[in-house]
What does this fold into?
Amino acid sequence: MNALAATNRNFRHAARILGLDSKLEKSLLIPPREIKVECTIPKDDGSLVSYVGFRIQHDNARGPMKGGIRYHPEIDPDEVNALAQLMTWETAVADIPYGGAKGGIGSDPRELSASELERLTRVFTQKIHDLIGAHRDVAAPDIGIIHRQSHFLFLSAYSFVSNWTNHIAWILDEYSKFHGHSPAVVTGKPIVRVNFSFFYFSLGIEDLGGSLGREAATGLGVVFATDDLLADMETNFIHENGGKVVAVGNITGAVKNPSGLDIPALMKHRENTQSLKDFEVGEDMDPNELLVCECDVLMPSTLGGVLNRENAANVKAKFIVEAILSKKGVVILPCIYNIQGFMWDEEKVNCERKKYMRRSFQQIKAMCKTYNCNLQMGAFTLGLNRVARATLLRGWEA
It folds into this structure.
């Protein structure tokens, strides 16, 4: 079952639970706009190459549509459609005033130079600029968005460290050529981190209107979600065991250490080598074994479909955060719940994120109790109910 079929199945199940009218159900399922564009760019060697880009705009009943742009060689319209639909329910579950959209470009960013990536991003933006905007459809980072770190010195007193989300800055700049300076057209804008070496503290400068805490938002959201789930089940082993990470994997490989990985050292290794392989304080492993290794909490992230009928029976984790199956007595906290982000100082961002996510978790539990369903379906029914209510209030049949 592909991503769209699985998402539609969950949607229809939630619609039946809520007793939605069949016409309203169909209206909420089908996106009003699906965009497909051809992006032809010159490569550094002078040759021309074409890439196909997509933008699916699923729903705007609760506010402007919002969703990331994914750079991946295996992207396809069905996957983008599923992700756009999930964004609609995610923003509704988090109770923030946005709808759902998603974009993708069928490319492998690892095979493109920085200048080729910039040309591709700008051409894609040119193709869709009149269909996005702060009050229509807000773009965001996703898979393939590269964070490059730069260091600057100024008067020997300040050390400037910038985690540039280049793609997002390029989208902002290209869009602004057509519509004037429009920082709200994208989220995940670059933050310049300034370290004051004389005073041993740092602050962030939002040169393009970015939000502090954005890079850590998804990961920290998973931590909050996991903590709420375990606390709700009267379990606190994450704190008791120090939150030991025994295995990590991504598109570049996987590494394990039963005694616990040194995550800061691993991240530095990844930054230096662009890979998780050959980490000196860990053992390389088959990425396919990552999902079935011995652990308490499994956190599959970003790409859908990694857990399926073939490998689900072999999962040894007691808890799964951001996953799709609920068998073997394993409790699953759905990814539809793990999203949030605001524009305040970093401490305020994290405080508000925790507050919103914990409130959402309690509301998901209430839906589970009302409809006697699992957490995944509780999240779907909560999000779908809010979008359906907004759609009806706006007079969708008029």
